[in-house]
Specification:
60s Ribosomal Protein L30, Chain: A, about 25% helix, globular, RutC-like_sf
Length: about 140
C-alpha cells in the first residue's frame, strides 16, 4: 500500500487489533483510523477458536458482527451515531431479512448508507455474514 506523501500521521491515527489470528495471517487490522475517518475491516461472528459462533443463524451472526464492528469504532474514539456506511456481505442462501433485522436493531436510528450483497462465499466454515463499517468523527 502506498503512503500519501502529504499525510502526516496524527495522534488520531491508530489501529485496533483483536488478536484473532486472521489479522497476523493476512496483515490487516480490525479497524484503522486516520484523522476523522474510521474504517472497520470485514468482521465475522467468530468464537475463541476462530469458528462461526452461531452456525446457521443469520440474525445472530449479523448482530454479533455489527456489535463487534461498532465496538471497534468506539475503541478508536468514534460513536455508533457517527457510522456513515455499512456493508453486509451474505453467503449464498443466507436469510437477508435476518441480517436486515439485526442492522435495524443496532443502527436503524442512525440510518447509515448501506449495501447488502450476496457474495459467492465467505472465508471460513459456517460464516453466513460479514460486516464492514465506515465512520467519520469530525
Amino acid at each position: 500500500m502506498s503512503q500519501d506523501p502529504d499525510h502526516t500521521p496524527t495522534s488520531t491515527d491508530a489501529r485496533v487489533l483483536d488478536g484473532t489470528g486472521w489479522e497476523a495471517a493476512a496483515g490487516y487490522a480490525r479497524a484503522a483510523r486516520s484523522g476523522c475517518c474510521i474504517a472497520v475491516s470485514g468482521t465475522t461472528d467468530h468464537g475463541p477458536d476462530g469458528s462461526a459462533a452461531h452456525p446457521g443463524d443469520v440474525h445472530a451472526q449479523a448482530h454479533a458482527c455489527l456489535t463487534r464492528a461498532i465496538a471497534a469504532v468506539q475503541q478508536l474514539g468514534g460513536t455508533r451515531e457517527q457510522v456513515l456506511r455499512s456493508r453486509l456481505f451474505l453467503a449464498p442462501g443466507a436469510d437477508w431479512e435476518g441480517a436486515a433485522r439485526a442492522h435495524a436493531e443496532l443502527l436503524g436510528d442512525v440510518a447509515p448508507a448501506n449495501t447488502t450483497l450476496y457474495v459467492g462465499g465467505l472465508v471460513g466454515e459456517g460464516f453466513l455474514v460479514e460486516v464492514e463499517l465506515d465512520a467519520c468523527t469530525g
